[in-house]
Amino acid sequence: MLSNHLQNGIETAKLVWSRLPNAEEGEHEDIGLLQRSDGSSNVESLDYEVIENYAYWEEQAQRGKLYVGKYVVVKWFFALLIGIDFRLYAPIRATLHLTQGVAPVVKALVLKVCSFKVQGSTLGEKPAIYPDPCRKTSEGLVYGSLGISRGTGLAAVFINLSVENFAGWKFALTFSIIQKSYVAGFIVYVLINLGLVFSSVYIITHFAPAAAGSGIPEIKGYLNGVDSHGILLFRTLIGKIFGSIGSVGGGLALGKEGPLVHTGACIASLLGQGGTTKYHLSSRWLQVFKSDRDRRDLVTCGCAAGVAAAFRAPVGGVLFALEEVTSWWRSQLMWRVFFTSAVVAVVVRSAMGWCKNGNCGHFGSGGFIIWDISDGQEDYSFEELLPMAVIGVIGGLLGALFNQLTRYISYWRRNHLHKKGNRVKIIEACLVSLITSFISFGLPLLRKCSPCPDTGPDSGIECPRPPGMYGNYVNFYCSKDKEYNDLATIFFNTQDDAIRNLFSAKTIHEYSAQSLLTFLVMFYSLAVVTFGTAVPAGQFVPGIMIGSTYGRLVGMFVVNFYKKLSIEEGTYALLGAASFLGGSMRMTVSLCVIMVEITNNLKLLPLIMLVLLISKAVGDAFNEGLYEEQAQLRGIPLLESRPKYQMRKMTAKEACGQRVVSFPRVVKVADVVSILQSNKHNGFPVIDHTRNGETLVIGLMLRSHMLVLLQSKVDFQHSPLPCDPRTGSRPIRHTPSEFVKPVSSKGLTLDDIHLSPDDLEMYIDLAPFLNPSPYIVPEDMSLTKVYNLFRQLGLRHIFVVPRPSRVIGLITRKDLLIEDNEESATMELQSTSVRSL
């Protein structure tokens, strides 16, 4: 009976995965490379600029007074959904019994939602994959975006529950076996880790290659204005969730916190577009998120929710989004991001309370990261500042070395090893798993056990503890009952619990310097080698592991040197963790707040600030931060906050391309096809001529918009003469949302469009669809000013023109001050005087 249910579950999973939309198969194995083998770019700039063409103004004119209110309400509602969906009931959906119980409810919801239009299908049109979208609920794949809203939120709770339970089962089974035979226990331990890692790398290599790595460099590039194909797709989200469970549960030297940021961004993007790329709701309520500008705000909320969920640090999540991933910020976005993080904090607290009642299996004091050291060191003396500063220097040096080593290894891996195919990627990850299992199980066997400390019954210290149980003093391969293995306490344990042990207070002399140094060297090496394998991988928790180890080493030296009972080794472990993250990731404010939130000790805030400032300064002297290095390696053209120094001596004319490809206002369809085939440009100036024959640049036409016009064919005309849309002789047949490219996909290409010979002889008037007011700079403007303008406004194109011959007027600050006129209910300029020259 059980085998039949298992077989049916496997077949159902295969069926569900096979029915994921094929339109999302835009990922490529070398997802990080800037250029694919065919020469086409794997990244594309986003259009954050509002294109104020005739279609835009016509849509604006149709909007009533309530539109602005609805627009704001919908944005806040989706911020709430991102926070709730991110953590609420994934563990509930993880059980088959409850999934069967909610099937009738989901079916009823599907029937309600079927009043919406679904892309490629209405109630009268049935897509090829789903013969009837309103009657397929019982097959386990809810049609369209309902499957997104019901099945992809709540990922973080599901990941944490799965990882903790897999680890608990693994250690409990291994410990029960090693009571009889350590060899058999070792074999079981290795096989479990190998199976979990294999499942992770198989999912990534065969189904979701864009889910490899942490995803933070790609999301940072997206919010900087660069869209890497495949990073925000539904397939990537599923691969990220289950891949993280396998890689972290398999004991690799990586974490799940970085992938949770990517997961949050995927959830936000999918909610904004109402579903997957191919199947999604087309409700008018979702039209506000069609533009890249509004989608960027949602993705920012998702990133903050990911950090808030991973570390239970809502304020840290907001600051992480502000400091690390976003390039463009405003006060309204701050409010929504803060609201999303606050919702996440409430939901996480509710989930933790539910799990404390024993409803989550092995999910206990581990789980969601929080290492409470509020009972640690109360105060510090002036002479302790010197060893704390040394910790900052060590963190900067080791962090910079980590960035450089991972860059070299990732470059070699990407350009030599991974080019040999998916089989090599799977073998590599499995070999890393075997090495990690050998080290984590074998090294504690070589370490002599230590006697348990003499503690009273009120100390709260239990010694020894069996492996796999939360706490210090793990009994592993010890001949006596009252002994523990200090190396097994941090090696033969989950990373979260190992960090909790290193941060623990009132445990002086628990670890020997030899054990900590051994663990530091081996885990540092494993983290360097593991980073870059074809599995979801975060570096937050491994960085904390590395830093807390050498921090505890320094703390042991300080305790022995100063002979003060008030000094806690766990405090120095915390400072070491902060220093390594600062030296590697180069974050300051957000990381400082995150460390305070996860340790629940505000007294250490000045010390954390000190080590972060020192480690960042030391690391900056050698190389850039981890995410910037990986973005460069993956070919993501990030525009940093400051332009390069040599740009001050360059002008806009020197930087721009000399060959400009343009369209006339009324262009022949055959000429459009020819130009698009011979050029890979994404923007084309549109030229018109005045009555005197002078050339006039009337705007900018995007390649994606031109492809939409070619596919629809409704704007083709026989006459080569222009038409005036303002006269109403020819209505606009398109809305701005029709020109938006689906997120993280290649979108429409010229190969998807089929034109007859008669179509090629037709003409298109581009005036109603172009951007009539693109940003323009004079040719002799310094490249530094152009850089700042480009980055701060989130532009995709800037026209470089000769020095203008005359000035129509000047606009000052007072000309931009607007006040309401209550009588006419219109907006008037406070000063409309413009000085004519």
Automatic annotation (TrEMBL):
Keywords assigned: CBS domain, Chloride, Chloride channel, Ion channel, Ion transport, Membrane, Repeat, Transmembrane, Transmembrane helix, Transport, Voltage-gated channel
What are the protein's GO molecular function terms?
chloride channel activity
Which compartments does it reside in?
Membrane
Q: Which GO terms describe its cellular component?
A: chloride channel complex
Topology in the lipid bilayer: Multi-pass membrane protein
Output the superkingdom of the source species.
Answer: Eukaryota
UniProt record similarity statement: Belongs to the chloride channel (TC 2.A.49) family.
- Protein's UniProt name: Chloride channel protein
